[in-house]
C-alpha cells in the first residue's frame, strides 16, 4: 500500500496509508467545499426572488438571509479549523457535509422568512467546518515543498466555484425558484460524501487535543449580530430609539466579554500578540474596510439590475459574471508582478481603480438599460480593482507574521473579510432603505458612493503598509507565544 504521508510532510497522525492519490483527495475536498464557495455568491442573486416569495418582507428583514450566514461564518471559521485538527479532518469534513446538506434542505423547504434565516445559520455552521477541513485534507498529504502549489489549485477551484454563483443562480431560479438554489446542494453533497468515504484518510494535529473556545465564538457571533441588527433597523426603528441603542449597547458589552475571554483562554479565537505586528493589524483593518465596500456594492448591483433596469434574475446573474471572471484573471497576473514590485503599489492601484469603478457607476448609470455601453465597462473595472487589491492585501496579512503562524494569520484575514461582508450588507440596507421607484436610482447611487469611500479608505490603508521591495511585509519582533499553533493550514481558507 502506497504511503502518502512521510515524516516531515505534515501528515501527523493515524490512518494515512491509503493508496488513493493526493490528486483524488484534492478533487473530493474541493467538490465538497465548492458548495460553500458557490453559496457565498449564489444567494445574493436570489435576494429579489426571496423577497417576492415572502409577501410583505422588507429589505431589512430579507438581508438577514445574507447577514446570518456572514456573521456565523465569520465567528466560527477558525473554530471549525481547530475542531477538524482535534477531532479528525475527514470526520469533520464528512459531518460538515451532512450538516450543510440538511440545512440546505431546510432552506429549500422554509415556509417563512424566519425559518429560512435559522436554516442559514445552521448552513453557515456547516460551511465554517467544511472549508477549513477541506483545505487541511489537501495539505496533510502533500510534502512541504508542494503545499504552495496545492493551495493555489484549491484556491483557484474555490474562486471558480464562487464565480459561477451568479449565473448558476440565475439559471436555477429561472427554471424553478430560489428554492432550487439550495436543493442543488443535495446531489453535489451526496456525491462528495460517497467519494469522501472511499478516498479520504483520517488525520489529526498533534498536541493536547483541546477543543476550540466555542462559547467565545458564540459570544463573538452575538456581538456582531447585535451590531448588524442596530445598523439594519436604525432607519426603521429610529437611530435614537431604545431598541437601536440597546442593540448597540449589547454589541459593546458582548464585544467586551469576548475580548476578556480572548485574553484568558488558551484556545481563544484571536491571538492578541499578532495584533502587535503593525503590518498584520493594518492589513486586516484594510481588508475589513474594503470587504465592507465589496459586499455592499455586490448586493447594490443585484438590486439595481432587478429593480431599476428590470432585468430578470437570469439576466442579472449573467450581467454580474464579467466581474469575478476579470478578478480571477487579473489576480493571477498580479501575483507575478507582486514578486517584482511588492504588495503596496499593486494594492494601492487596485483600491484606487476599485473606487474609480464605483464613481463611474454612480455618475454614469441611468434608468435606461445599457449593458454594453455602460454596465460592461464598469463591471470590468471593478473586477480589475478587486483582482489587484484583495489578493495583495491578503498577502501582506500572511507574510507579516513568522512562517509557523501563516495558518492562523490567513484564517484571521478571512474572519476580517467576513466581518466586512456582514457590515457591508447591513450598511447598504441602511443607506438604500426601501425607496420608491422614483427614488430608487438615487438610493443605489448613494450605495455606490459609500462603496467608493470604502475603497478610497482602503487605498490609504494600503499606502500605509510597510512592505519590502520583494513583497514580504516587515514583521516586527514578536514576543514568544506559549500557545501551540495548529499543525495544518486548516484555518487558512481564503475564498477569493
Structure in words:
This protein is mainly alpha-helical and 496 residues long. The chain has three domains: 1-211, MFS general substrate transporter like domains (Growth Hormone, Chain: A, Up-down Bundle), CATH 1.20.1250; 213-268; 273-477 and 485-496, Growth Hormone, Chain: A. It has helices at residues 22-53, 59-62, 64-87, 89-109, 113-140, 144-163, 165-175, 178-183, 185-199, 214-237, 242-264, 278-307, 313-320, 322-341, 343-364, 371-399, 406-432, 440-464. Helix 7 (165-175) runs antiparallel to helix 13 and helix 14 runs antiparallel to helix 15 (343-364). The chain is globular.
Summarize this structure as a short list of keywords or feature phrases.
Growth Hormone, Chain: A, 3 domains, disordered N terminus, disordered C terminus
Number of domains: 3
Mean of residue pLDDT values: 82
Q: How many extended strands?
A: 0
Span of the ends, CA to CA: 37 Å
Short overview:
The protein is mostly helical.
Q: Secondary-structure map with pairings?
A:
Blueprint: H1 22-53, H2 59-62, H3 64-87, H4 89-109, H5 113-140, H6 144-163, H7 165-175, H8 178-183, H9 185-199, H10 214-237, H11 242-264, H12 278-307, H13 313-320, H14 322-341, H15 343-364, H16 371-399, H17 406-432, H18 440-464
Amino acid at each position: 500500500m502506497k504511503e502518502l504521508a512521510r515524516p516531515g510532510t505534515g501528515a501527523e497522525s493515524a490512518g494515512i496509508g491509503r493508496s488513493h492519490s493526493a490528486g483524488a483527495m484534492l478533487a473530493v475536498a474541493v467538490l465538497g467545499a465548492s458548495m460553500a464557495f458557490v453559496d457565498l455568491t449564489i444567494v445574493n442573486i436570489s435576494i429579489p426572488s426571496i423577497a417576492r416569495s415572502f409577501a410583505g418582507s422588507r429589505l431589512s428583514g430579507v438581508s438577514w438571509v445574507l447577514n446570518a450566514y456572514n456573521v456565523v461564518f465569520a465567528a466560527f471559521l477558525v473554530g471549525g479549523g481547530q475542531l477538524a485538527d482535534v477531532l479528525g479532518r475527514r470526520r469533520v469534513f464528512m459531518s460538515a457535509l451532512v450538516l450543510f446538506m440538511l440545512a440546505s434542505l431546510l432552506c429549500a423547504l422554509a415556509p417563512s422568512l424566519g425559518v429560512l434565516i435559522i436554516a442559514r445559520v445552521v448552513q453557515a455552521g456547516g460551511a465554517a467546518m467544511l472549508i477549513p477541513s477541506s483545505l487541511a485534507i489537501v495539505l496533510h498529504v502533500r510534502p512541504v515543498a508542494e503545499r504552495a502549489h496545492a493551495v493555489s489549485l484549491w484556491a483557484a477551484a474555490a474562486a471558480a466555484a464562487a464565480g459561477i454563483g451568479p449565473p448558476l443562480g440565475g439559471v436555477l431560479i429561472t427554471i424553478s425558484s430560489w428554492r432550487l438554489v439550495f436543493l442543488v446542494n443535495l446531489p453535489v453533497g451526496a456525491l462528495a460524501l460517497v467519494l469522501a468515504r472511499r478516498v479520504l484518510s483520517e488525520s489529526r494535529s498533534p498536541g493536547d487535543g483541546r477543543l476550540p473556545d466555542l462559547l467565545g465564538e458564540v459570544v463573538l457571533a452575538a456581538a456582531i449580530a447585535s451590531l448588524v441588527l442596530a445598523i439594519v433597523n436604525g432607519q426603521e426603528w429610529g437611530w435614537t430609539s431604545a431598541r437601536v441603542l440597546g442593540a448597540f449597547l449589547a454589541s459593546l458589552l458582548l464585544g467586551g466579554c469576548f475580548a476578556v475571554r480572548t485574553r484568558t483562554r488558551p484556545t481563544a479565537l484571536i491571538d492578541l500578540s499578532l495584533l502587535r505586528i503593525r503590518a498584520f493589524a493594518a492589513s486586516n483593518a484594510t481588508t475589513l474596510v474594503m470587504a465592507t465596500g465589496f459586499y455592499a456594492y455586490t448586493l447594490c448591483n443585484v438590486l439595481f439590475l432587478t429593480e431599476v433596469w428590470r432585468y430578470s434574475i437570469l439576466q442579472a446573474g449573467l450581467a454580474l459574471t464579467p466581474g469575478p471572471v476579470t478578478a480571477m484573471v487579473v489576480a493571477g497576473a498580479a501575483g507575478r508582478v507582486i514578486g517584482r514590485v511588492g504588495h503596496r503599489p499593486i494594492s494601492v492601484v487596485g483600491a484606487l481603480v476599485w473606487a474609480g469603478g464605483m464613481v463611474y457607476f454612480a455618475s454614469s448609470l441611468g434608468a435606461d438599460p445599457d449593458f454594453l455601453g455602460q454596465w460592461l465597462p464598469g463591471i470590468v473595472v471593478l473586477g480589475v480593482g478587486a483582482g489587484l487589491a484583495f489578493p495583495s492585501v491578503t498577502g501582506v496579512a500572511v507574510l507579516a507574521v513568522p512562517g509557523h503562524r501563516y495558518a492562523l494569520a490567513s484564517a484571521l484575514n478571512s474572519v476580517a473579510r467576513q466581518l466586512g461582508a456582514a457590515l457591508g450588507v447591513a450598511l447598504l440596507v441602511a443607506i438604500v432603505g426601501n425607496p420608491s421607484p422614483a427614488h430608487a436610482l438615487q438610493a443605489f447611487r448613494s450605495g455606490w458612493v459609500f462603496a467608493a469611500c470604502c475603497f478610497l479608505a482602503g487605498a490609504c490603508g494600503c499606502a500605509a503598509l510597510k512592505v519590502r521591495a520583494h513583497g514580504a511585509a516587515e514583521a516586527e519582533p514578536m514576543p514568544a507565544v506559549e500557545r501551540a499553533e495548529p499543525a495544518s493550514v486548516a484555518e487558512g481558507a481564503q475564498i477569493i
